[in-house]
């Protein structure tokens, strides 16, 4: 059983369809629009596709999407969700096996959303970046949404509960055991500078905070009765989208890289 198999059937209820889940994904899509990519007939390889919500986004824009995830159950949900879109296919893929996955195929965009790459050690992330550089077309883009080493919301929230260990847990270079419905998944956090240093085959095109004002998803219950406040935070995030330096303080950040 892969790490996320056990939450696949509840993932949309527990995250995708929550108020914060929708707000954070909308921020990601807002940034994709700012990149001004013409997705019509573009070939997209999605890593860590989860339940296929972003695959739907790309498909509706006319892209040819290959959605992948290490979780068979997540891929099954994606297949059902995208059944009406012939331009979407879904397969199981361990990120660490990307070098041998359809090895003769190249893509215009490789995309990974919401911290899937945070499951990789530094060496694994570096290897992924090197392999990804060989799987992109000449003008291709690698677009990743990653959790940084510090999150303002998270630190303030846990400090308010006098939980010093969790307040600064992202700083742990050895990784953190994140609990997902009773199962622990090792998670590593990378600042934008960390990623840029590891991505030697790429040049940075764009970095933007995702969730600078919109809080982490585990705080969703706190905002169930305050939709206007959450919407206000989302608007503030949109206004802060050009503040590259604030990316290191947000829940996630979007980084877009081009081949050198």
Walk me through the structure.
The protein is 33% helix and 23% strand. By secondary structure, it is an alpha/beta fold. The chain has one domain: Rossmann fold. The protein has a 7-stranded mixed β-sheet. The protein has a two-stranded antiparallel ribbon with strand order 6-7. Strand 1, helix 3 and strand 2 form a beta-alpha-beta unit. Helix 2 packs parallel to helix 9. The longest helix has 16 residues. The chain is globular, with a radius of gyration of 17 Å.
What key attributes describe this structure?
7-stranded mixed β-sheet; 260 residues; 9 strands; alpha/beta; Rossmann fold
What's the gist of this structure?
This protein is of the alpha/beta class. It has helices at 11-16, 19-34, 53-60, 72-81, 122-134, 152-160, 164-167, 192-198, 227-239, and strands spanning 43-47, 64-69, 88-92, 107-112, 136-146, 176-180, 183-187, 202-210, 252-259.
Helix and strand succession?
A: HHEHEHEEHEHHEEHEHE
Low-confidence stretches: none
Number of helices: 9
User: What is Rg?
Assistant: 17 Å
Strand order of the largest sheet: 3-2-1-4-5-9-8
CATH architecture grouping = 3-Layer(aba) Sandwich
What's the number of domains? 1
Under CATH, the topology can be stated as Rossmann fold
Strand content: 15-25%
Number of strands: 9
| Secondary-structure-derived class | alpha/beta
**Mean pLDDT over the residues:** 95
Q: CATH homologous superfamily?
A: Vaccinia Virus protein VP39
């Amino acid at each position: 059983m892969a790490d996320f198999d056990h939450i696949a059937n509840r993932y949309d209820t527990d995250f995708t369809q929550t108020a914060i889940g929708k707000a954070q994904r909308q921020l990601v899509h807002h940034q994709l629009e700012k990149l001004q990519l013409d997705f019509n007939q573009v070939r997209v390889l999605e890593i860590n596709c989860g339940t296929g919500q972003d695959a739907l986004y790309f498909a509706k824009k006319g892209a040819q999407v290959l959605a992948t995830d290490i979780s068979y159950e997540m891929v099954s949900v994606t297949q059902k969700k995208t059944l009406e879109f012939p331009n979407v296919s879904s397969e199981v893929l361990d990120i660490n096996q990307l070098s041998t996955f359809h090895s003769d195929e190249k893509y215009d965009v490789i995309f990974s959303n919401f911290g899937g790459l945070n499951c990789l050690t530094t060496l694994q992330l570096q290897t992924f970046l090197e392999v990804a550089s060989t799987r992109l077309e000449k003008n291709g883009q690698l677009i990743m949404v990653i959790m940084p080493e510090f999150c303002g919301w998270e630190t303030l929230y846990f400090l308010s509960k006098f939980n010093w260990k969790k307040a600064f847990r992202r700083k742990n270079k050895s990784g953190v055991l994140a609990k997902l419905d009773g199962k622990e998944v090792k998670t590593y956090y990378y600042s934008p500078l960390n990623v840029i240093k590891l991505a030697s085959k790429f040049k940075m095109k764009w970095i933007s905070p995702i969730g600078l004002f919109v809080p982490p998803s585990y705080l969703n219950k706190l905002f169930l009765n305050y939709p206007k406040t959450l919407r206000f935070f989302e608007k503030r995030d949109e206004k802060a989208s050009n503040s590259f330096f604030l990316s290191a303080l947000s829940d996630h950040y979007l980084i877009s890289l081009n081949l050198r």
